Amino acid sequence: MNKANILRYLIFIILLLQTVYGIAQEDISPPVLKNASIMNEEGDVRLTWYLTDTINSDIIIERDSLNINAFTEIHLIKDTSVTTWVDRNSNANNQSRAYRLGYSLEGQGVPSSNKFNTTYLEIDFDICNKENNLIWSRYVNSSEIINFNDTIQIKTWNVYRSIDGNNYTKIDSISNDTTFTDSNIEYDHIYKYYVEGVRDSDTSIKSKSNRVSINTEMPEDPEYINFDKLETQEQGLDFEFTIARNSELNRYVLLGSNNLSGPYDTVETFNTQENEIAYTDESIDPQNEVYYYHMASVNSCGALTTRSDTLGNILLSVEKENLSSILEWNEMGHFSNIRYEISRRIGEQPFRFHQTTYQSPYTDDNPEEFKGQDTSSRFCYQIKAEIQHAQGLVSTITSNSKCIYIKPQIFIPNAIIPNANNGNNAFKPEFTFVPQKYLLIVYSRNGTKVFESRNPRKPWIGRLRNGQKAPGGTYIYYLEVKNPGQPMIRKRGEVNVVYQK
User: Distances from the Cα of 433 to the Cαs of 334, 408, 455, in angstroms?
Assistant: First the structure.
């Protein structure tokens, strides 16, 4: 072959290749991206597509880049018979991702496929209405990048749900909306969802969203609130409560009423995570009125949940009948088998246990035994109720203290022998019960005060105020005796001072 023919042949080949190359750039149909469906909870995305032209070119898979506002190549398919691929690095469980396909050709006008966005599903649990609210989108929702909206039309959205790890089941189908409210919710379960978009043009193509999960956990109510103590003070009432340690709540209210059946008003609100609550209500006069209380926990929705027992203060009254004391009090009739412990205090002694009873009233005949034993005329009483509950819990109610005064009988000697050894050597009135207030003054015949005492146990031993022996003869005494609630007793008389020879 001569040189001229070889040159003509080479030119022909070059022109032929240019012609073929030009057709590939301008007339090749792009790939069609059929679906981008999320496969699992990890957010892996399965892409499916088909080619409309048979060409000898690699397939480029591109995904939106959140950093540079563009699509970037993430994978290369060298076998054109392959029509599916899984993107295991999409992170599509946290955001919507966009994909497209292209050919690995150089030059201008290389065609790209349609865009296809994954469906991104979000969930919100309305704890008070017991609803799971779903909302989903098919675009990249960010102000920082372009919105890669695709043109895929969805006919129906199928909503799937799983409860506590069971299989997913379809619970509804939605048209023309991308929100759904699941009102068939119970507390303390794990709900999982995904939505499935059914293509309008081909209902066999279905695109699954990411999976969302939520625990419909309501903070746990306390198993119990125990009303430990209710104690009456001079002014107000003291309370102590114990809250079960399982409680996940941190708000409690103390409710009170002057009637056991209510209505109850809020006395105080406590915001605490402690398991013990103490409080004093100083607005109540426990010496004259009965008031009822209980503690309740408040959940996240403001509802009252666990409540303690309702207890009221014990209002004790004591009446005197001769030398007996009649005790009466309001019983906690809404409990059974309450044990009442009666404590008694005589004079300034501390309260001591006296008797156990299971009902009101109670009669204390015991003061008769103290007659003439130099015992105070003041007898005070207090009631302590003990209520046994389940789980070994106990509630105690301590009443107000109530006192009575026994009117003393008075025996006054008319003579003393200061130098006697037989016990008749001092002057002092004797009482069946020692009064609370006492005044004794002894005067000489000319009106000079020789002795004064406010201590009923301190006698006049026949001495003048200067310590010298009182001369024998007649002296005048003046006596005042007073108990609360009783009239003043005043006595005047003579006492003779006689000396043994």
Answer: 40, 5, 14
Confidence of residue 271 (pLDDT cuts 50, 70, 90): very high
H/E run at residue 352: strand 352-357
- pLDDT mean over 79-93: 94
Using CA atoms, how far apart are residues 476 and 492, in angstroms rounded to an integer?
A: 7
Q: How confident is the model at residue 1 (pLDDT cuts 50, 70, 90)?
A: low
Residue 372 carries which side chain, given as an amino acid letter? G
Dihedral (C-alpha) 284, 286, 288, 289: value to the nearest 10 degrees?
Answer: 60
pLDDT at position 5: 56
Residue 438 neighbours by CB under 8 Å, 6+ apart: 453, 454, 455, 456, 480, 481, 482
Q: pTM, whole model, 2 decimals?
A: 0.71
**Which of left, alpha, beta for 106 (phi over 0: left; psi -120 to 50: alpha)?**
beta
Q: Identify the band that residue 145 occupies on the pLDDT scale cut at 50, 70 and 90.
A: low
Instruction: Identify the burial level of 193 via C-beta atoms within 10 angstroms of its C-beta, where 0-12 means exposed, 13-18 middle and 19 or more buried.
Output: buried
Question: Which pLDDT band, with edges at 50, 70 and 90, does 8 fall under?
Answer: low
Please write down the HEC assignment for all residues of 16-73. HHHHHHHHHHHHCCCCEEEEEEECCCCCCEEEEEECCCCCCCCEEEEEEECCCCEEEE
CA within 13 Å, CB half, 421: 1
Which residues, in sequence order, are bridge partners of residue 59? 77, 103
Amino acid at position 345, single letter: R
Residue 283 CA to residue 126 CA, distance in Å, equals 39
The SS3 call for residue 274 is: coil
Contact between 178 and 196 (Cβ < 8 Å): no
**In what helix (H) or strand (E) does residue 474 lie, and over which residues does it extend?**
strand 473-482
Distance CA 264, CA 255 (A): 6
Give the rounded distance of the alpha carbon of 345 from its chain centre. 40
**DSSP output for 378-442:** EEEEEEEEEEE-GGG-EEEEE---EEEEPPPPEE--SEE-TT-SSS-SSB--EESSB-SEEEEEE
Contact residues for 424 (Cβ-Cβ < 8 A; gap 6+): 413, 415, 416, 417
Mean pLDDT of all residues in 118-132: 95
Residue 192 makes CB contacts below 8 A (sequence gap 6+) with 161, 162, 163, 168, 211, 212, 213
3-class secondary-structure state, position 207: strand
Question: CA 354, 355, 360, 363: dihedral to nearest 10 degrees?
Answer: -70
pLDDT at 22 (0 to 100): 45
Burial (0-12, 13-18, 19+ Cβ within 10 Å), 273? exposed
Q: Are 382 and 399 in contact (CB under 8 A)?
A: yes
